[in-house]
TrEMBL record:
PANTHER family, per database record: MOLYBDATE-BINDING PERIPLASMIC PROTEIN, MOLYBDATE-BINDING PROTEIN MODA
Assigned protein family: Belongs to the bacterial solute-binding protein ModA family.
Origin organism lineage: Bacteria, Pseudomonadati, Pseudomonadota, Alphaproteobacteria, Rhodobacterales
Pfam family, one: SBP_bac_11
Signal peptide: 1-26
Record carries keyword tRNA-binding: no
GO BP terms, alphabetized: molybdate ion transport
Gene Ontology CC annotations of this record: outer membrane-bounded periplasmic space
Residues reported to bind molybdate: 36, 63, 150, 177, 195
Protein name per UniProt: Molybdate transport system substrate-binding protein
Keyword list, A-Z: Metal-binding, Molybdenum, Signal
Length: 261
């Protein structure tokens, strides 16, 4: 149901076992993760599994969908959200352990266009007319603007630039940011708004411009262990590793931004 991406070491050596004596037998950790983190967490999970022997399963989807599933008792050990508000929502319901909550990394918001080509690096300024770039029947692909973090950021950016009123009736809203990316990649929408990391992962789209960082709330990914985690200590260990000195190279390789000191 949850679309697991499983990263597991088929067998680990005696040396690796001795290196993690406290953990005992290998733990199985399920990470409910924002769709935009699918690739970076898949790589991180594989590397972590090789050193720890634990099995890390990544279940990617929209942060809002995953948060609601966790609140309803879905079997997640760790939640990684694309914005703090859904983590706040779960904290209010005692569904995550606030002591384990950690900020992980950041991102940028970009306008993408269908087709390969040179990326446009210019920031989109107030007065930019995105609507004029759409044909009469065309729509702008975005994640759900009332629930999904990428969509919420997109709406804030369009409002800041004075484009929301013109574009609101012309949106193609998708369940998560990767679904919005797919609409543009497949040519079903000529333009879309996604994270910079999503654009970098898809060869069939190009960046047409970058939204100013002050046009929307800061994009911050946060993680926490759920209160229903089957093995909370193992889950917390993975989350600490993800926010520690071992992971920045992986994070940077996928285009995510480090958080300010």
């Amino acid at each position: 149901m949850y679309g697991f991406v499983s990263m597991r070491l088929s067998g680990f050596s005696l040396l690796a076992a001795l290196a993690f004596p406290v953990m005992g037998t290998a733990a199985e950790i399920t990470v409910f993760a924002a769709a935009s983190t699918r690739d970076v967490l898949a790589e991180a999970a594989e590397i972590y599994s090789e050193s720890s022997g634990d099995e890390i399963r990544i279940a990617p989807a929209g942060s809002s969908v995953l948060a609601r599933q966790i609140a309803q008792g879905a079997p997640a050990d760790v939640f990684v959200s694309a914005n703090p508000e859904w983590m706040d929502w779960l904290e209010e319901r005692d569904a995550v352990d606030p002591e384990t909550r950690a900020a992980l990394f950041g991102n940028r918001l970009v306008l993408i266009a269908h087709g390969a080509g040179a990326a446009g690096s210019a920031e989109l300024a107030p007065g930019v007319d995105i609507a004029s770039r759409l044909g009469p029947e065309d729509r702008l692909a975005v994640a759900l603007t009332d629930a999904v973090p990428a969509g919420i950021y997109a709406r804030a950016a369009l409002e800041s630039l004075g484009e929301w009123e013109a574009l609101a009736p012309r949106l193609a809203e998708a369940d998560n940011v990767r679904a919005a990316l797919a609409l543009v990649a497949l040519g079903e929408a000529p333009l879309g708004i996604v994270y910079a990391t999503d654009a970098a992962a898809e060869m069939r789209v190009r960046v047409a411009g970058t939204f100013p960082e002050d046009s929307h709330p800061p994009i911050r990914y946060v993680g926490a262990v759920t209160t229903a985690a089957a093995e909370p200590e193992a889950a917390a260990a993975f989350l600490r590793w993800l926010g520690g000195p071992q992971a920045p190279d992986i994070i940077a390789r996928h285009g995510f931004a480090p958080l300010p000191e």
